[in-house]
Each structure stands twice: as C-alpha cells, then as structure tokens.
Amino acid sequence: MARVLHVIPYQKFFPPVGGAWRPFFFLRELARQHEVHAIILQPQSELQGERGGYRFPDNVKVYGPAQTPPPRTIFDLLPARLNSALHYRWLRRSWRGPAGTTALEIHHLLEKILCMERIDVVIFEHLHSMMAAPIVRRFSPQSIRILHAHNVDSDLHEQLLKAGNTATRADLSLLHNARWSESNLHRFVDTFWTCSEIDRAKLEAMNQGRIHGWTIRTGVDTTVLQYDDRADKFNRKEILFCGSLDYPPNRNGLLWFHTSIWPLIRERLPQVRLVVIGKGRAGSEFSRLRSEPSVDFKGEVESVIPYYERSSCVVVPLLQGSGVRVKILEAMSLGSPVVSTPMGAEGIEAEQGREILLADQAESFAAAVLRLLANRELFENLRGAARRLVEEKYDWQMIGKKINRVINEIRTVNEVAQSEHPA
C-alpha cells in the first residue's frame, strides 16, 4: 500500500461531470488499495452523500483552500498582478516557464501534508497543477511525481487557433505556455499518464525521450450506466448532443452540426428533434439554434441518464480536440448508438460499422445518422456490440486494477533506481 497525494484543481469535482469524470474515478480506484490524501478546490461540505449514483470515497482525507485559505505573505503588499507573478516564482525558486495560480492556492496545503505524512506518490491533474511540482520536490524529494494529462493541450490550442478567424495575445500565450510545459515535463515530474497511446507518444516525443509515460484508458461505471434494452428505443424521434459548452471543441462541433448536418437530416426526417444538454454558457452564437422549433436546448441538467433513455441515438460531431470523449463511452454503456467524427472517437477502440458509425463530412455524417435510424438491425447490433466493448475494455473497476498495478510498478522502478544511485 502506498501513501498517495492527489492534487485536483477543480471547483466542481463531485458529482463527476465533464473534465472531473476521469480524476473522480482515478481517486475512487486508488482509494481501494492505497492511503489517499487529496487537495480539492471544491468545499468539503459538497463532497458528501450520494449524487447521481456516485459517492465520494469515505476513506480519502480531503484538504482544500476553501477550508484552509493560504496565509498572507509579504507579497500581498504588492499590486495583485506583480504579487502573483513574484510569489509564484519564489515558490518555485525559478524564473523559467509560465506562472501557475493553482500553486499559489495550494502551496501551504502541500507543505502541510508533506511535512506531516511520508507521501510516496503525488499525482497532479493537468499542467496547471503540475506547476506546483517543485514545491513537492523541495519538501519531499523522495515522492514520485506523476502528471495526469487529459489531453495534449498544445495540440488542442493549436487546433482551435487554426479553426478561428483571429488569434489574440491571450490565445497565443496559452499555446506557448502549454507547449513549453509539455516539452519540459521531465523537469517537473517522473512520469505521466495519458488517455491514449497517441497522446503518450506525442508527449514522449516532445520531451525527446527524457521521460516515459503510461496509457490508462478512460472508462465508465457500467453498474450505474445500465443498458437500456427496451425495444421501442429504435422508434424514438430524438437525437442527443451531450457535452460541456464551456469546451470550445464541443461548441464548435455543435454549431457545425446544426448549420451543416441538421438541415440534411431534417429534409429526410422532418419529425425528428435534436436535444442539446451540457453545462456552460450559451452565448449569442447559439441564438438560432435555441430558437429553432426542432431543437430542444436543455443546457445543464441534474442527470443525463433520462435524456439518453428518451433519445434514439447520440451524435459527437467534433472537429477538434484531444484525449478521449467520455460521452461516447457513456452512450455506449447506456445502449445509445453513436455517430461521431473520427476526431471525436479518437482513442476509443471501436470498429467502424460494428460498435460505432464514423464520418467527417457533413453529407456523410447526415447519411450515417439517417442509415442508423432507418435500419433496426444495424441499430440493435451497433448498440449491443458497443455495450459489450465497454464491459470488456472500459469498465472502471477493470481500469482501476491497472491504475494500482502501474502505481506499484512505478514505485518498484523508483526503489531500484534509488538503491543503484543513492543520493
């Protein structure tokens, strides 16, 4: 058993939705075998009870700035922007690389935990929490530091810049900072985890082989997301889009679907409706979509399961992105057949025509949806095969065994290295 510290920079972490989905299950699976401490930005009072079929692990000790704010320092006497920049550089003892606000929020908690406990492994969610790694190195040099990379962020920023008409200074800064951080992982952590082999290979190449990573699949809880075996699902007249609208690839994909694909579907199936669910801002770019009678724009909902149950199929029309789309696995587990772009389905080992339908042009995407809704045999075979795929490869309890096996392997390698090269 290892003592693990999990750094999770989410204001909304539980119940798990969107980006919090993967780290929540990592935390839950780690807690099955290890002593787990977690720094979480969400107030501890909100991590209690059961929500959406999930329960926060009782045996995880939680720390957070909501309960224990960072102490005031001499840097607070400076103007706000200068305060943050200089304080962060001082904490890291380095002028190199981008500044990180997460480190400023949690540095006192890191110091407290590392001085109280002998932590074996520290896991950082995302690049911005990884910027606190030098603090861990200073107070607990023996701790193994791991980045949990959900995406190759520099790829994502670059895709969005290419898709947009203008690039602001802030956009270019995000790209530059992500590229620098991802090219210097070896300066911060000992290893990293990714959702897909594609992302693992990219990050290793960016670091010129000076650090090696592990691929750990994203999954779903198939006991909570149960298969809808009702025979009338094929006859339902709703198509579902599900995804956070705070995430630019989702926004762009939905707008592309509504503008270029939805009219082609409606021309053949005028009675069909599009249902849109997902948290986030619904700005002026969605005004036409929201006002259209054939679209039911729900926004954020308490539970997505009823919307999967009332729909016939799910569309994932993403043209940008990185990592793995949980919403595809979620739909597959619940028995909703999926039509996606290849980009949307990247990292999921689903076979075209067997467990999923893929298309990357408006005409072929619309044709795939129409074919699915016209062919009961294809519809039932596709969703049945997709559920079996999820059960065999993407169930969290099975993935959890690999997470804990990898933790043990990393610790063994580290112990051997330390015995061969003692400090």
CATH top level of the largest domain is Alpha Beta
The name CATH uses for the topology of the largest domain is: Rossmann fold
Low-confidence stretches: none
Q: Count of DSSP helices?
A: 16
Chain-averaged pLDDT: 90
In the CATH classification, which architecture of the largest domain applies?
3-Layer(aba) Sandwich
- The 3D shape can be described as globular
Count of extended strands:
15
Content-based structural category: alpha/beta
Strand order of the largest sheet: 5-2-1-6-7-8-9
* Total of domains: 2
Largest sheet: 7 strands, parallel
Report a brief summary of the structure.
By secondary structure, this protein is α/β, with parallel strands linked by helices.
Notes on the structure:
The chain is of the alpha/beta class. It has 2 domains: about 5-220 and about 395-420, 3-Layer(aba) Sandwich (Rossmann fold), CATH 3.40.50; about 230-395, Rossmann fold (3-Layer(aba) Sandwich). The chain has 16 helices and 15 strands. The protein has helices spanning about 20-35, 80-90, 100-115, 125-130, 135-140, 155-165, 170-185, 185-190, 195-205, 250-270, 285-290, 305-310, 325-335, 360-375, 375-395, 395-420, and strands spanning about 5-10, 35-40, 50, 55, 60-65, 120-125, 145-150, 190-195, 215, 240, 275, 295-300, 315, 340, 355-360. Strands 5-2-1-6-7-8-9 form a 7-stranded parallel sheet, with helices on both faces. Helix 11 links the parallel strand 11 (about 275) and strand 12 (about 295-300). The protein is globular, with a radius of gyration of 23 Å. About 45% of the residues are buried.
